[in-house]
Write a structure and sequence with these properties.
Blueprint (H helix, E strand, L loop, with lengths): L1 H60 L14 E5 L6 H8 L10 E5 L6 E3 L3 E2 L8 E4 L9 E4 L5 E3 L4 E6 L1 E4 L12 E4 L3 E4 L3 E4 L4 E6 L3 E3 L4 E3 L4 E5 L4 E3 L4 E3 L4 E6 L3 E3 L4 E3 L6 E4 L3 E3 L4 E3 L4 E6 L3 E3 L11 E6 L2
Parallel strand pairs: 1-2, 2-5, 3-6, 4-7, 5-8, 6-9, 7-10, 8-11, 9-12, 10-13, 11-14, 12-15, 13-16, 14-17, 15-18, 16-19, 17-20, 18-21, 19-22, 20-23, 21-24, 22-25, 23-26, 25-27
């Protein structure tokens, strides 16, 4: 009986130990669950903190007005550098927003003695690009330079538009080599307007190339020292080059070909390696009051079912040949 009593006490003690152990295990499990909950909450807090930081950064970068509730934008300026590292970054950000019909958004490049360097084209593909401006110093193109290495410069394509490009010197690095890199490229029904303070130079292609139904307004702009030529308008395209200048290009100053039309009223084409003003293959050029001097080929050439009108004081002197019309 004494042994039996001792056994019972021991069994009770053992059962108590097991209950304590079970409670301890349950407690450990609960503690682990609670710790996991806290870790999850910590992650959530960290995530929210990151979201808040991003939102605050966005508030700091949007320094004028927020986009409207419907996703459109009020008039505003995107500063480069400052708000955005370069034009590419500004365009990428802008792609998320529409631009109201009565609104203008300006990408403003600050004057800098060093050029802004690019190794890829600035492709303007915004759906409301006709309400977009890219500006340097509209009073002095030399104050802001965009330099493109081995690539086209500013481009619009496939029916897109750029409302204004002004106050810029746009340079390439291939003035002595025949490449397809153009300072401005407008093609496949694209549209672009250049202001009078734009200089396009040192490209292996053309200063400005307009192709396949493109439209370019470049009154007063300049295209100098490019390999293929200054302004080239081809394949059913249209350009207004009133008062524009094109000089020291390896080939032609101003060209229109393949059923294209150019208004080169009061424009100048001087010191080019081939023709000053050239219309071929059903091209049309209006060159009233234009100047074509010191070109190695013709001052003005119309050939291959083309037409050039040169009323009102055309000056064509110092060229290897003056004015010629041939082959229809």
């Amino acid at each position: 009986a004494a042994d039996a009593a001792a056994i019972d006490e021991r069994v009770v003690a053992i059962e108590a130990d097991y209950l304590l152990a079970a409670d301890a295990d349950a407690l450990d499990t609960r503690i682990s669950d609670i710790e996991a909950d806290y870790l999850l909450q910590a992650d959530a807090d960290a995530l929210q903190s990151g979201v808040d930081a991003l939102a605050n950064a966005a508030v700091q970068r949007i320094t004028s007005t927020w986009p409207e509730d419907d996703g459109s934008m009020s008039d505003r300026t995107l500063d480069v550098p400052g708000e955005f590292a370069d034009v590419h970054e500004a365009l990428l950000w802008l792609d998320a927003w529409a631009i109201d019909s009565d609104t203008t958004v300006t990408i403003q490049l600050a004057p800098d003695p060093a050029p802004y360097e690019y190794t890829a084209p600035i492709l303007v593909a915004h759906r409301d690009g006709d309400r977009l401006q890219i500006l340097g110093d509209p009073l002095d193109a030399s104050a802001v330079e965009l330099h493109f290495e081995g690539t086209d410069g500013v481009t619009v394509d496939q029916g897109r538009a750029l409302g204004l490009l002004d106050g810029l010197t746009i340079t390439g690095d291939e003035a002595t080599s025949n490449t397809e890199s153009d300072g401005v490229l407008v093609y496949r029904n694209g549209t672009m307007i250049l202001g009078p303070e734009v200089v396009l130079q040192d490209f292996g292609g053309y200063g400005a190339s307009v192709q396949y139904g493109g439209m370019l307004w470049a009154d007063g702009a300049e295209a100098n020292s490019n390999f293929r030529g200054g302004f080239s308008v081809n394949w059913g395209s249209v350009a207004s080059l009133i008062g524009a200048g094109s000089s020291a290009n390896s080939l032609d100053g101003i060209g229109s070909a393949y059923a294209s039309a150019v208004d080169a009223t009061a424009a100048s084409a001087t010191g080019n390696g081939r023709d000053g003003v050239r219309a071929i293959y059903a091209g049309t050029v209006f060159a009233d009051g234009a100047t074509a001097t010191g070109n190695a080929g013709y001052g003005l050439l119309s050939a291959g079912n083309s037409m050039v009108r040169a009323d009102g004081g055309l000056v064509a002197t110092g060229n290897n040949y003056g004015v010629a019309a041939s082959m229809g």
